[in-house]
Amino acid sequence: MTDLSIHPQGLEHAVQRARERHILIPTFAQMRDPSLVPARIRERLGGVGLWDLNPLNLFRITWKNQPTARGGGYGAVNHLVLPPELTGVRARIVVLTGKWFPTGAHKVGAAFACLVPRLVTGQFDPVSMRAAWPSTGNYCRGGAYDCALLGCRSIAILPEGMSRERFEWLEKIAGEVIRTPGCESNVKEIFDTCHELRASGDDVMIFNQFDEFGNYLWHYSVTGPAMEEALLPLATGPRGTRHIRGLVSATGSGGTIASGDYLKHRYPWLNIAASEALQCPTLLRNGFGDHRIEGIGDKHVPWIHNVRNTDLVIAVDDEGPMRGIRLFHAEAGRQLLQKRGVDPALLEQLDLLGISGVANVLAAIKFARYYELGSDDLIVTIATDSMEMYGSRLQEMDAALGPMKEAEAAAVFERWVLGQSTADMLELTWPERKRVHNLKYYTWVEQQGKSSHELAAQWSDDYWENLPGLLPRIDALIEEFNQRTGVKV
Predict the structure, then answer these.
(1) Looking at residue 184, what is its pLDDT?
(2) Residues 6 or more apart in contact with residue 413 via CB below 8 angstroms
């Protein structure tokens, strides 16, 4: 699970590096509740850009940054509420938006949570080691950014088929960029590269988001409470919080969906839905294939995914989110949506939804239809990133299809938004959950060296319920580290 043993030499090197660079590290508690951040740090953030390579931006790894590119403080959880006029379902869909994190994606938080426990225990030595970040896009950007802030060397690993913008950004920030064969769903090729790095003899630590429980813990302790905070003011129907009906999330690395474990602990009636691409229906049909929903990964079940808590699988045709970003971005698309009654103020914010965000929204629409939800009911989902990294995808579609006209906008809205059905969905019975859980064996035991004993242990509530108990110890280690550096606010 998570090893918190102390390595004295690495710890001394990490303390010295932090002292030299005047680095303070936030706790998980501060990322969850930024009101705990010292006032002096909040004041100094007023002069720092959101994406600046400034160690103070470690304190902006939170869902509560003011939505501004420079100098903002903290506020409410960044989210959108999508109405029936846009979605075609009566339930309201609440979307947490990741754009207002440093790097423009919440993966910077997951990467932080994987790196920092190793740094403050000395297991990762910033003097001798390099940090490798296997990813399908945003996680390696978050890891490279965190490394730049913390004075560590990084290697970003991602498929060669990812968007051009990602590579352009990484070339400026990461120490090294490795392009692996394939597209979004070619995760095994990423793992193969990690094996090659281990065998090379270089001093490299692999921070694999798919099996690092720091990823799980960050979303459980930070994203889950942020979702709750966004939902509670809206739960005003006659049944109160019973109207909080579901979390919908692409399985991805297994991190974001861990927020569902937090929510289900608080609201046991809530259903957790794992979404995936129809072109790669791993959970739905033990299937495989290529798809275009960048950032969600596929062809395996992440080691850190608590399948016991997953109630539903929803597959989304990747044509839907691709057409969706075109609809939401094009002038003809926004004009059509305004005619259909969508608030112009909301239309101006639809670029907060990247490709995977639109995919999650479409899956949430299917969820609402499946459970026949009413106007008081609430579904929460997430937009990991915005359109900031996908301008080239829009250009490619414009080149292939020409500029969007009103007729195409109407057709896309009817077919890919209002036309979402309950096809390609599976409610997970207990045996079905066990089937999905057992799929971990082929990736993690046969290929990645995990033990079948631990795989069996994961089929227990105790395994998952004990994980959050690590958080106070990790925060204590962070506070001890900051005290050792002697860095003052």
Answers:
(1) 59
(2) 327, 333, 336, 337, 340
Q: Which two tokens stand for residue 296?
A: 């969600």
List pLDDT tens digits, range 257-268: 999 999 999 999
Give the other-Cβ count within 10 Å of 452's Cβ: 12
**How far, rounded to the nearest angstrom, does the alpha carbon of residue 183 sit from its chain's CA centroid?**
18
- SS3 assignment, position 96: strand
If the chain, 489 residues long, is cut into consecutive pieces of 10 residues, what is the mean pLDDT of each piece?
Answer: 90 96 97 97 94 95 96 96 98 98 94 96 96 85 91 89 82 88 73 86 89 96 98 97 97 91 98 94 85 74 96 95 95 97 97 95 98 98 92 92 96 97 97 96 93 97 95 98 94
Is the distance from CB of 303 to CB of 444 less than 8 angstroms?
yes
Helices (H), 88-130: 107-120
Q: How far apart are CA 128 and CA 152, in angstroms?
A: 9
- What the block records as the tokens of 420 is 């979402």
Exposed e or buried b per residue across 68-83, where buried means at least 16 C-beta atoms within 10 angstroms of its C-beta? eeeebebeebbbbebb
Q: What is the pLDDT of residues 374-400, one digit of tens each?
A: 999 999 999 999 998 889 899 999 999
Cα–Cα distance measured from residue 237 to residue 85, given in angstroms and rounded to the nearest whole number = 20
CA distance 456 to 276: 25
Q: Where are the alpha helices (DSSP H) in 304-403?
A: 319-329, 331-339, 344-347, 355-370, 391-401
Other CB atoms closer than 10 Å to residue 296's CB: what's the count? Answer: 27
Residue with tokens 């072109």: 279
8 Å CB contact between 95 and 136: no
Task: Provide the 3-class DSSP secondary structure of residue 166.
Answer: helix
Q: From the CB of residue 196, how many other CB atoms can be counted at a distance below 10 Å?
A: 10
